[in-house]
Amino acid sequence: MTVKAVQFNVNGRDEAVMARPIETLLSVLRDGLGLTSVKSGCAQGGCGACSVLVDGELRLACITPAEDVAGSEILTLEGLNETNSMAAIQESFVANYAAQCGFCTPGMLVAVTALMESNPKPSRDEIMEALSGNICRCTSYLPIVDAVESAAGELSGQGDD
Ligand code: FES
Ligand code: FES
User: Would you state the pLDDT for residue 159?
Assistant: First the structure.
């Protein structure tokens, strides 16, 4: 199997990784670059734990071949942590008891970011729809929806970086 160099930008840094033809973006981000916020949950596109942004679009890194994102701009939670909006979202998750295990939360925060980029003040139904691909086994989801609603309300009333 031919290993190929793949170049992309991750969290503002140009990176080059060696990837096998079927190697996933999850593998190169997590194992190759040490970006451990990108979790391997189901590894088959069903749980959302590996969510990242590729050129601003929400993508599941476990079913995305690394080769397919050559030349793209990728954001993981490590990169999103630098923004004021993520600080507000995380504070809201804590205040609303929306984070418990820490395993599914990074992917949810990435999905929330994607939602708020396209819809800064989503309804509860829109929040539930946007997070429908992110599985959580412990919060009953309602605190998560509360947290996103609260953060969206706060952020829509202020400028962001
Ligand atoms: S690990 Fe990618 S969707 Fe579950
Ligand atoms: S907070 Fe991770 S499974 Fe519920």
Answer: 47
Ligand 1 in reach of 60 Cβ (< 6 A): yes
Residue ranges of the chain that CATH labels 3.10.20.30: 4-76
In which band, very low, low, confident or very high, does the pLDDT at 158 lie, cut at 50, 70 and 90? low
> Would the pLDDT of 138 be above 60?
yes
Q: Rounded to an integer, what distance in angstroms lies between the CA atom of residue 100 and that of residue 155? A: 23
Residue ranges of the alpha helices (H) in 7-68? Answer: 25-27
Q: Where in the chain is the domain with CATH 1.10.150.120?
A: 83-155
The pLDDT of residue 134 is above 50: yes
Per CATH, the number for 4-76 is 3.10.20.30
Atom of ligand 2 nearest to the CA of 98: 1
Question: What is the number of the ligand closest to the CA of 30?
Answer: 1
In single-letter form, the type of residue at position 5 comes to A
- The rounded distance, in Å, linking the Cα atoms of 145 and 93 is 9
Taking the domain 83-155, which CATH number applies?
A: 1.10.150.120
Q: Which of 29, 62, 131 to mutate to test the pocket of ligand 1 (most atoms within 8 A of CB)?
A: 62
For residue 30, the CA-to-ligand 1 centroid distance in Å is 13
pTM over 0.85: yes
